[in-house]
Hints:
This protein is mainly α. It contains two helices and no strands.
Amino acid sequence: MTRSQRLDPLLRVKQQRQDDVAREVAQRDRAVSEQEERLEALRRYAAEYAAPAASVTSAALLANRLAFRERLDAAVVQQTRAVADSRQKADVERARLLLASRETHVLGKLSASYRAEENRVAEQRVQRELDDLGGRRARAAATDTDQEDVA
C-alpha cells in the first residue's frame, strides 16, 4: 500500500468531519436568522405599544398597558441576548469549519504530493526498464552484426 493510499481513509474522515461541521454552521445560521426575526417582531410590537394610547381612559388600563410595555421591553432585552448568543455559537462553528477545511486541504495537498511522487517514481522505473530493454536489443543487434561479419 502506497503512502497516498494510506492517507485516503484519513482524508475521507476529514472530509466527512468538514461536511458535518458545515451542516452545523448552516443550522447555527438558521438559528441566528430565526432569533433575529423574533427580535425584530418583538421590537415592532414594542414600538406599537410605545405610542401613546388615546383610547386609555382609566388608570387600571393605563397601568396594564405600562406593565405590558415593561414585559415587552424585557422580552426585547432577553431576545437581544439570545441573538448575541446564537451569533457567538455560529461564529464558533464557523471557526471550526475553517479549521476543518484547512485540515482537509492540507491533507489533500499532502496526498496529491505523494501521488505525484509515486507517479514520478513509476515513470522513472518504466523509463529505466525501457532503456535496459533498448540497450539489450542494441547489444544483441551488435552481436548479431559481429557474428555475420565473422562468417
